[in-house]
């Protein structure tokens, strides 16, 4: 993964264009090139869109939308899937770029699908966990094909409480209690 040595402000990041189709996250002011998604990660994200479209309007689902999170330096993340609130969807209407700014309400749910490797695990389990909690995101799912589990983090008094769902266990989502979904279904992108 490539990082830049120059530190960017959020304004500089929003205006940045290196003339390529590389995707970046801004992490503590540094541009960090995002790794390519695996085919399984893409399938899981698409499967989850199909699941969530049964319980929320399609207008509240986003893939590829950035979110500016708290930190001592500018940080912007690109989750694998976001479920917006109605208020956030209204705030994004008409914006030139699909990015959730600090003055906008937080999403209802963010999903990250972990790529193999310690760096990716640290990013999703440690850094994003604290960033998303500080941003006030009510629910954060970590889908981890390598560990064969889904972790559902629920925001309680500014910190996430963790529930781990392996294999065939039914996922319990406080935000979406009507979901009939097992960890295995998510991890196998709907295939039994």
TrEMBL record:
Classify the source by domain of life.
Bacteria
All copies of the Putative restriction endonuclease domain together span 12-183
Which Pfam family name is an example for this entry? Uma2
Q: What is this protein identified as?
A: Putative restriction endonuclease domain-containing protein
């Amino acid at each position: 993964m490539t990082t830049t040595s120059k530190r960017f402000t959020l304004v500089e990041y929003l205006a940045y264009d290196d003339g390529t189709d590389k995707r970046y996250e801004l992490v503590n002011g540094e541009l960090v090139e995002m790794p390519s998604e695996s085919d399984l990660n893409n399938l899981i994200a698409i499967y989850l869109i199909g699941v969530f479209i049964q319980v929320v309007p399609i207008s509240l689902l986003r893939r590829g939308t950035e979110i500016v999170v708290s930190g001592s330096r500018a940080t912007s993340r690109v989750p694998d899937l976001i479920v917006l609130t109605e208020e956030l969807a209204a705030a994004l209407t008409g914006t030139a770029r699909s990015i959730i700014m600090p003055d906008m309400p937080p999403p209802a749910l963010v999903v990250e699908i972990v790529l193999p490797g310690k760096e990716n695990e640290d990013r999703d389990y440690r850094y994003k966990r604290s960033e998303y909690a500080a941003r006030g995101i009510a629910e954060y799912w970590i889908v981890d094909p390598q560990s064969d589990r889904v972790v559902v983090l629920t925001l309680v008094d500014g910190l996430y409480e963790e529930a781990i769902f392996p294999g065939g266990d039914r996922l319990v989502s406080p935000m979406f209690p009507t979901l009939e979904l097992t960890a295995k279904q998510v991890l196998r992108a709907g295939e039994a």
